[in-house]
Amino acid sequence: MQVLRGFSDPGGRPCVLTIGNFDGLHLGHQALLGLLAEEAEARGLPASLLTFEPHPREYFAPDDAPARLTSLREKRPLLTACGVDRVHVQRFDAHFARLGAQEFIDAILVRGLKARHLLVGDDFRFGDGRVGDFALLQAAGRQHGFTVEAMPTLAVAGERASSSAVRKTLAEGDLAHAARLLGRPYGMTGRVAHGDRLGRRLGFPTLNLPFRHRRPALSGVFAVTVEDLAATPIPGVANVGWRPTVGGTPRPRLEVHLLDWQGDCYSARVRVNFFHKLRGESRFPSLDALKAQIALDAAAARDWFSRHDADTSRG
Predict the structure, then answer these.
(1) Cis bond leading into 54, ω under 30°?
(2) Contact 260/182 with Cβ under 8 angstroms?
(3) What's 232's DSSP letter?
(4) How far apart are CA 123 and CA 120, in angstroms?
């Protein structure tokens, strides 16, 4: 899969296109991308996706923007699995935010990406002031020779599959519900960094994965598995938060203690899959109290995995 900056293709080849941020790549997104890949194959054209960085809501209201579910790096293997051939990443800045709906059509869909078929969600809006809608796209398609199709909302057990719904379930700690909407366990990827070795001093060494530009969609202590360190996922117990017992951190951190596994994994890039919330993050009166709680958390994680081993095999 190609990842290109901006909305022009050096080869100048027409495409079948969809547009959006696809945060989380939930089952609704996967259904839309499946239709995109089928249409692209039928037409003999690349299946292309136009997305934005940062998310428009992060640009307009950075303090109130929703937590991101997936980074672009995390999306790449998921998009490839859905049959996407090209991803165009357009920087969302002041100039792009002022782009009118008609200019969006002319500059991006017609001249830039040369769309022959456009597939969008049923609530898709575009252009300065979000004045562009499906009817405007259909009219432009008749004028410029591309077809437009709207993807209806996908329901999972009667519930609309959406990024907002996934965020809500994660914030509530309902990991099983989130997995049903995503079609997989919720996970994060990152590179293991050096920490202050507090966990090692307490007898529970941890993998430290800092968040650089991302507010986590969940917080607390969880039963997790870690991929890419061994042939099979390794069970562990993870804390996502701000470490209040030791004075706090300016940015949230993901720390994972692996159960029954030891090794040097600094600089390794790993994926952490979240299966069950054990408790919320707490401030303890002393390091001894924290150590005792970590031991209880590890025991609770072991117990959970002993009862749900088959459920974690797809993580």
Answers:
(1) yes
(2) no
(3) S
(4) 8
Residue 44, class by beta-carbon neighbours within 10 Å (0-12 exposed, 13-18 middle, 19+ buried)?
exposed
Q: Would you say 178 and 169 are in contact if contact means Cβ atoms under 8 Å apart?
A: yes
CA distance 254 to 3: 28
What are phi and psi for residue 38, nearest 5 degrees?
-65, -45
Residue entry with tokens 């952490």? 272
Pairwise CA distance, residues 243 & 255, whole Å: 10
Q: What is the pLDDT of residue 153?
A: 78
pTM across the whole model: 0.90
Name all domains of the chain by residue range, CATH numbers in brackets: 2-156 (3.40.50.620), 186-312 (2.40.30.30)
Structure letter (DSSP) for residue 310: G
Predicted pLDDT at 55:
82
Reported as a single tens digit per residue, the pLDDT across 270-281 is 999 999 999 998
pLDDT computed for residue 314 by the predictor? 53
* Confidence at residue 50, expressed as pLDDT on a 0 to 100 scale: 96
130 CB-near residues (< 8 Å, 6+ apart): none
Cβ–Cβ < 8 Å for 68, 164 = no
Which residues of the chain register pLDDT less than 50?
A: none
Q: Is the peptide bond before 252 cis (omega within 30 degrees of 0)?
A: no
Q: Which tokens in the block code for residue 46?
A: 């690349």
DSSP 8-state symbol, 285: S
Phi and psi at 115, nearest 5°, equal: -65, 135
